[in-house]
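Per reviewer request, we include the raw input and output of the structure prediction for the construct analysed in the revised manuscript.
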Amino acid sequence: MIVPREPQTPASVADHYDELDPFYREIWGEHVHHGLWATGLETPDQAVEGLIAHLADTLALETGQHVCDIGCGYGATAEWLAAQYGTHVTGVTLSSAQLRQAEKRAAQSPLLHFIRQDWLANTFPDGIFDHVYAIESSEHMPDKQRFFDEAYRTLRPGGRLAVYAWLAREKAGAWEERLLLEPICREGRLAGLGTVPEYRDWAEKAGFKVDGIENLSAKVKRTWTLCSGRVARKLLTRAEYRRYLLNAHSRNRVFALSLPRIWLAYTTGSMVYGLLTAHKPSSLA
């Protein structure tokens, strides 16, 4: 696993999203995750929803099921799933700024519930969820094994897990780690980037039967071209963006450096975007 030189804590992750909240919502929109260009012809909005739809298909969602969104962001993904499938979604986030936005959605739908809580120290009972998913949040967690252990514990027998994750190339070279992967972790407040074999191993040690790990890197890479372009335009046209980057007291301004780094990491294959799917064996098995 690739780990940053400076350890990243839940508090530093929360601070990252709280401080960058207005920029995230302007640059990324309400869905703080990659888009999926299955055909290459999708608009950015269609690609973002395509990533969620692919997740829903993987989980085989049904009306009335109770699903957990680990690292729910602004709650837009949960809202989309509730509207499309009639599922009850409980979302967990570390960020106060994200929770405020998510709670506005919950106020409009009885199917949604959001809380500010560390997944690694969550208070959910055993077997409460039909399905559990995480979209680009496991990277922030310092104890990946516990991430999977808690997913297994809170799932009912037969329940499914789906995890979209940023992953490091297996046996990455020294230059890849030094110039790309370690800085990406540090600048993005990621506690560590695991590899495909490591994610499979953590899931299996938790008790899951892994159904597969899909490499979606080529279909999501355009996300970073779009985001880099949007940031460049904001810097040219918006003084508050320039002030933030030039202010030495801006704790998370370094994340701007990761935009080209992440694009390059995908281009070189140093980083992989994967979807791990797994299930908790039925009690009858």
